[in-house]
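Worked example 3. Consider a protein that binds NAP.
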Amino acid sequence: MAVRVDLNISLDGFATTTDQTPEAPMGEDWSRLVSAYVATRTFRERVLHDTSGEGTTGVDDAYARAYFAELGAEIMGAGMFGLHNFPDDPDWRGWWGDEPPFRVPVFVLTHGAPRPPIEMAGGTTFHFLSATPHEALDRALEAADGKDVRVGGGATVVRDFLKARLVDQLHVAIAPILLGRGIRLWDDMRGLESDYEVTSETAESGTIHLTFRR
Ligand SMILES: NC(=O)c1ccc[n+]([C@@H]2O[C@H](COP(=O)([O-])OP(=O)(O)OC[C@H]3O[C@@H](n4cnc5c(N)ncnc54)[C@H](OP(=O)(O)O)[C@@H]3O)[C@@H](O)[C@H]2O)c1
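Given these inputs, the predicted complex is written out as structure tokens:
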């Protein structure tokens, strides 16, 4: 049982993009940041429900498969779930459609008004809570029933869990692009690597997969 993080970051360390507009809610930079992941067969199957068998099957895909393996629960922030984009919509159900890719209990951290859990198709249930990282992790570990807990994002929540030293395995997929602004994963993290064994592997796409294991 491990607490895992998988994040896509730019060469200059940014885990968020800043060029969203009402017309383009994801912006152009998001597709630049995640293009190698989105191109994988696993992403196409698991997130887009594309059963054609298309998509890359190399190093990026091996990491994408690992994102979902042995997962028992997920934790994410209000930003990643979309509550900051749709603060006044009590029926907002996340970005992932009727059948989200998680297929496990997902704990959404928010200071907002209490929301009832939302049960989705395929095994995902979103639970909303206001709690410290330690408390949220205890709930997720209980729900995970011996499997791993993934802290899915966004940048703020991942940084909080890293600072609280709750992460056993941090995998960053470093896209060979520069974003220049946003929330940088590494700020104030001096010496983080000393708690971990660090390995790296470069994919065919040019993405560098860096893994910190406790
Ligand atoms: N690069 C990647 O791989 C990746 C992965 C996932 C997401 N993202 C990106 O990350 C961005 C979102 O990240 P973000 O940093 O803006 O937001 P976030 O980390 O998803 O969420 C932060 C928010 O969650 C709530 N929160 C955090 N800790 C809490 C606690 N202990 N108790 C209660 N509520 C708590 C607060 O919102 P309230 O106070 O408003 O409730 C806080 O502002 C998106 O742009 C998304 O695209 C990137």
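Take a moment to read the result before moving on. The chain has one domain: 3-70+132-213. Residues 7-8, 15-16, 76-80, 84, 109-112, 130-132, 152-157, 160, 183 surround NAP (CB under 6 Å).
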